[in-house]
């Protein structure tokens, strides 16, 4: 497992292209199984979750070529309807392959994804929806075995707007008989990108980005070419990198409208933001202002995937900020590590409300990344801290950022990666 060595104090400034979105490419790679043809996907982020997805596709029998930017998948000869327990353990979001496999083969053998650093991560909403569409589900020795003689469209109302459940239902319904109406659907931009990809294959999906999605099943899908949307969470992370170091950054190939929930809060913290068609510019204030109350919510609320990063920023604001994490029950493993750097953060008894008292300075320390976004938050804190910081556990960060150390170095950060 690699480490990041950071010497804090440099003001970051410069320009950065926003690469393809991790949370868009994963459901898209699960969808390629549906078309039994060729899928050409541009702007594929070169991250470890992409590599694990390629392994899953190859295990299923797909032929995959990837040059670090464009991926070509031939799924015409795919004939295996299972995902190995090892790969599920390596990447719990492999559960998104359930919908692609079920839609194509009408049977799937996949292990329970299990919890992770963020909490229990249940899958009850996924399984309940698939049963409603005619899937028989049994559990054996930690495996979920799904079989469906016929997949029939129906009305599915989600108890909560789960991103993964919305995506698995879209994939399962694409080739099902009849119409599936999904209400209380997740509205994340990645869902819209998935709809565009599925319709590019000849599916009939409408309404992504709203809370009602209608999928009319078609008989067959065909080859497709698609460019993945930019990663709004990576973009938000680099905006915070500039904000926390008192610098400025211009992001290109971004989608400003995807970032409004984040940029509106960065403005509240004192940053200057200017957005145009595909660029977002941020200039940090001389003094960061606290945010009285911030609650993470499903899109278009403030994204939970930016909670650790903005917590690092608010650790240096001049005043008290309160964050309420409403999506995951234990997205707080980065707090103890930030405290090692001198942050003054209290976790309320409910375990999901955090009181951040800004300090004048953070100091360098050896800290450990426990999950993807928590690791990014520790790197951001190291860039602003006085002295040297070592962030252990790079494998978490590599899951969702394409060489984060290179991006930050290009902006003037003093950071290096040691394998
Ligand atoms: C997706 O995870 C993202 N992952 C997460 O990003 C993101 O944090 C999350 O959506 C919320 O936006 C990918 O897209 C690969 P959910 P997902 O189902 O689909 C509960 C990152 O850092 N729930 O919307 O797993 C669940 O426990 C990652 O990039 C059920 O109760 O999230 C959670 O509390 C982390 N039953 C809430 O819903 C279910 O059947 C939101 O989960 C499913 C979910």
Please, could you describe this protein's structure?
The chain is an alpha/beta fold and 419 residues long. It has two domains: 3-19 and 230-418, UDP-n-acetylglucosamine1-carboxyvinyl-transferase, Chain (Alpha-beta prism), CATH 3.65.10.10; 22-215, Enolpyruvate transferase domain (UDP-n-acetylglucosamine1-carboxyvinyl-transferase, Chain, Alpha-beta prism), CATH 3.65.10. 33% of the residues lie in helices and 24% in strands. The protein has a four-stranded mixed beta sheet with strand order 22-23-1-24. The longest helix has 13 residues, at 48-60. The protein is globular. The protein binds ligand EPZ. The site of ligand EPZ has 24 residues, from helix 1, helix 5, helix 6 and helix 12.
Compact description:
This protein is α/β, with parallel strands linked by helices. It has helices spanning 22-31, 48-60, 85-90, 97-105, 124-132, 163-173, 189-200, 232-244, 256-268, 307-314, 333-340, 372-384, 394-398, 404-410; strands at residues 3-7, 13-17, 38-42, 63-66, 71-74, 82-83, 107-111, 136-140, 143-147, 155-157, 179-183, 204-206, 212-216, 224-227, 248-252, 272-275, 280-283, 294-295, 320-324, 344-347, 353-357, 366-368, 388-392, 414-418. 33% of the residues lie in helices and 24% in strands.
